[in-house]
Amino acid sequence: MNDFLAARCQMAISLGFHIVYASIGMTMPFFMFVSHLKWFRTGEEIYLQLTKAWSKGIAIFFAIGAVSGTVLSFELGLLWPEFMKHAGPIIGMPFSWEGVAFFIEAIALGLFLYGWNRLNKWVHLFSGLLIGIAGVASGFFVIAANGWMNSPEGFDWINGNAININPVDAMFNSAWISQSTHMIIAAFVATGFSVAGLHAILLLKNKNSEFHRKAFKIALAFGAFASIVMPVSGDFSAKNVAKRQPEKLAAMESLFVTQKRAPLIIGGIPNEEKQEVKLAIEIPGFLSFLAFGKMDAEVKGLDQFPEDEWPPVLLTHLSFQFMLLFGTIMAAIALLYLILSWRWKYFLDKPWWLRLLAFSTPLGFLALEAGWMVTELGRQPWIIYRIMRTEEALTPMPGIVYPLILISVVYLILTLLSIYLMRRQIRYVHEKYS
């Protein structure tokens, strides 16, 4: 394995690991806040127990997420120094604001965990909400920096240097709103279905557990609502990509030839050498409509770009298809949930429904990982879109494969640690409240 591939693999492993913990850290506090608020309103002790149980899980994910996020910040400077040399002065502001949001989140978490019977009850309730608000803000700021990589703005690039830097324009770039909105909603979908699926599994073991039933309903409400909103966010994001990064859209859909009434391709395996897609279902004109709102609009294909600037078509296309597949399944489950809640509530306690939710437990995070692969692979070969190639930003330090091995071992240990801690917490909660 060469150093360039090793560095990219290391970043992929780090990002793939961190995004799970970051997503949970952004969204779980809102579940906890709703449970806490329900305790205030109803006085039911079960909601208090649920709030305390979820707060311990949030603390575990926050601690491990802080470690993985710190590793990522070091990797940016150590593996991609040329990128940070130019990008640092331009997008330093969202990173600094992310740091502020992180510290607010940490302080709020400390107040919530140790504030029982010490703080005013409304202050304590607000501290729980503040954990989620700060977590979402942190996500927005980080995604603003990533959006800038896809839509670099706020500077003039002259003779290989950035001048006339405007950090505000860089932060609020053209990709910021669409990417951040899509990512935050995806985090709620993934976490909502994951938590609901976990409690569905525990309900299958004990159907009479009111603790798991209430937890299941709160989590699924968030996940279902977010999954129904997700297609709107996805449409907005796709139109933005079509406008800013047409080659990314072409790779996502394996569109090799520019054409009007471009078909939407469902499934299929692209062949870059033959420039064709096998085993695909095509819906004529639908890609043109989704990208530009007109069935006969022209969509640029990969033939409009030099081949050395093509994203990896196979991986980008398959990642996009898996993201759509998992997202569609969850949206269908969400619609079914709304229908059953409206007309046939008694079905919501049936084993088949709980098994369906148990099956959906990992789907949100699989879709989330696939979506990030689309975002990052679809920008290649650029680390800063049309400004700097990824290989140009690589550190000259040799032997990057050894840090890759070390980081992989560290993340393996963190994964095992998180599984151990969560299994212990889940077992304790299940035995106590079942």
Please explain how this structure is put together.
This protein has 13 helices and eight strands. The chain has 434 residues and is mainly alpha-helical. The protein has one domain (3-433). The strands form four sheets. Strands 1-2 form a two-stranded antiparallel ribbon. Helix 4 crosses helix 6.
Q: How confident overall, as mean pLDDT?
A: 88
The Cα radius of gyration reads 23 Å
Cα(first) to Cα(last) distance is 51 Å
Helical run tally: 13
The overall strand count is 8
List its salient traits.
434 residues, mainly alpha, two-stranded antiparallel sheet, 8 strands, 72% helix, globular
How would you summarize the topology of this molecule?
Elements lengths: L2 H40 L2 H35 L1 H34 L6 H30 L5 E3 L2 E3 L3 H5 L4 H30 L4 H35 L1 H8 L5 E2 L3 E8 L4 E8 L2 H7 L5 E2 L13 H31 L7 H9 L3 H15 L4 E3 L3 E2 L11 H33 L1
Antiparallel strand pairs: 1-2, 3-6, 4-5, 7-8
Helix pairs in contact: 1-2, 1-4, 1-6, 1-13, 2-3, 2-7, 2-13, 3-4, 4-6, 6-7, 6-11, 6-12, 7-8, 7-10, 8-10, 10-12
